[in-house]
């Protein structure tokens, strides 16, 4: 019995332990030993799964070296893209610059068929010693030449090319020259009812009209004033009594960006050229280097201003025909004069393109003979020399004057294209020439450098230049 009693407990305990495990899996009642065992097994399984998941996640996570290598690759790719973009921009810029340089410096101009005037020849002489005579207007009624003058001492310090950026010590002025006395001295015009210590006249335009009240013939002068506060058009009435200009009014507009020249078409209305879209020096250099055509023509109808022409290549001079039916605009970079027809819409002042006249030199101001309608064009044969002269690297620059004669319809010059018929491209038909181009004057710059204007009166040419300190009066000898 004792032996039997001693053998039973181990067997029972073993059975109970096995049963406990099975019952634990079946969610049956268990003893304390069985519960502990089941929890231990379950925790072990759960921990194993978490460890396996964590190991998998750790394997997916990049190492520090991998992260560094990936960042370096992305940065290299980004740098390569930036480099390619910069190279593309550089190539495009170089292409634009080469094209611009080719057009400005290499492209051949029209051959000048005129005897050069070196120094003072017998048919030319210096007169009217005044600083910077940039523009000239001829008054047949008064037999006077009106000359705008400025010493341009502000150019170096100004951040603008065309006007001072601060108040200057010296003002400019307007002078009259008696055309009947070839060696007469210029007289400074007295400005009445005009108080300004910031007067820098440039482009001008004269208009003769009859006063409605007094029925007297009057001369009105429109003047572009390059004030340091902004460009303004000043309007005056001239009186021979006392050689004075009486102030009428000022015209200001945000559209007067870089005004160069002005053309009056009646006592109130005028057209005006802006040769660049940006007034500061850097903007102008960018426009010129890129060959951008951003010039405009602005119209003032007596009350408000508006743009009538855009995307022009450096429009410098502007003038109207004697009957006011056509407007002429010079394009400095394109070396040509554009002819436009006016419309009857006085309020809008729209212009319709008629024809382009190629000059072959870089065209500056225009002057119209009120009797014949011929256009006298001052121009610069060499842009490179002209630019170096303006920057004071060259002491002088050549001057060239051309006459444009308007032909009668029966005298139009027919033109034929030199191109043949190529497959389905027919030979182009060219319109006839309505204007004849004649060279009147050429100088290497010793007598007058970089002429900006040439006016005609009684078989004499009167030349002026903003970089000279005198006028040049010549009797041209046409050789063609």
UniProtKB/TrEMBL annotation:
Residues 30-46 have a biased composition (Low complexity). It comes from the Eukaryota. Residues 48-61 have a biased composition (Basic and acidic residues). Residues 1-76 are annotated as: Disordered. Keywords: Calcium, Disulfide bond, Glycoprotein, Hydrolase, Metal-binding. The keyword Disulfide bond applies. Glycosylated. Glycans are attached at residue 365. Belongs to the paraoxonase family. This is Serum paraoxonase/arylesterase 2. It comes from Linnemannia exigua.
């Amino acid at each position: 019995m004792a032996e039997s009693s001693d053998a039973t407990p181990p067997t029972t305990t073993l059975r109970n332990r096995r049963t406990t495990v099975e019952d634990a899996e079946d969610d049956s009642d268990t003893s304390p030993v069985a519960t502990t065992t089941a929890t231990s097994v379950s925790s072990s399984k759960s921990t194993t799964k978490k460890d396996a998941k964590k190991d998998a996640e750790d394997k997916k996570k990049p190492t520090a070296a991998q992260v560094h290598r990936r960042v370096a690759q992305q940065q290299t790719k980004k740098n390569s893209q930036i480099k390619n973009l910069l190279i593309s921009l550089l190539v495009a810029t170089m292409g634009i610059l080469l094209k611009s340089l080719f057009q400005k410096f290499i492209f051949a101009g029209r051959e000048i068929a005129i005897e050069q005037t070196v120094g003072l020849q017998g048919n030319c002489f210096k007169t009217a010693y005044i600083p910077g005579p940039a523009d000239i207007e001829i008054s047949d009624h008064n037999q006077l030449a009106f000359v705008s003058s400025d010493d341009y001492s502000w150019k170096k310090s100004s951040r603008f090319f065309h006007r001072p950026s601060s108040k200057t010590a010296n003002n400019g002025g307007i002078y009259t020259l008696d055309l009947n006395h070839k060696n007469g001295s210029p007289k400074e015009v007295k400005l009445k009812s005009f108080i300004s210590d910031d007067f820098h006249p440039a482009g001008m335009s004269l208009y003769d009209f009859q006063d409605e009240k007094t029925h007297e013939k009057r001369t009105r002068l429109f003047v572009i004033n390059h004030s340091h506060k902004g460009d303004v058009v000043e309007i005056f009435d001239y009186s021979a009594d006392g050689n004075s200009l009486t102030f009428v009014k000022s015209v200001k507009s945000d559209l007067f960006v870089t005004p160069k020249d002005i053309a009056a078409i009646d006592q109130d209305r005028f057209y005006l050229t802006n040769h660049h879209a940006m007034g500061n020096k850097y903007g102008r250099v960018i426009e010129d280097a890129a060959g951008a055509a951003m010039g405009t023509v602005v119209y003032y109808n007596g009350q408000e201003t508006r743009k009538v022409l855009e995307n022009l290549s450096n429009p410098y001079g502007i003038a109207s025909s004697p009957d006011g039916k056509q407007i002429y605009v010079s394009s400095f970079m394109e070396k040509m004069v554009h002819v436009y027809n006016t419309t009857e819409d006085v309020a809008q002042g729209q212009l319709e393109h008629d024809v382009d006249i190629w000059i072959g030199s870089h065209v500056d101001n225009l002057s119209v003979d009120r009797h014949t309608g011929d256009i006298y064009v001052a121009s610069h044969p060499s842009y490179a020399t002209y630019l170096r002269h303006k920057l004071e690297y060259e002491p002088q620059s050549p001057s060239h004057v051309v006459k444009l004669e308007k032909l009668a319809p029966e005298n139009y010059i027919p033109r034929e294209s030199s191109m043949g018929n190529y497959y389905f491209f027919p030979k182009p038909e060219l319109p006839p020439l309505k204007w004849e181009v004649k060279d009147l004057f050429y100088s290497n710059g010793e007598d007058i450098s970089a002429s900006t204007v040439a006016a005609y009166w009684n078989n004499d040419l009167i030349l002026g230049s903003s970089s000279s300190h005198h006028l040049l009066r010549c009797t041209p000898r046409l050789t063609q």
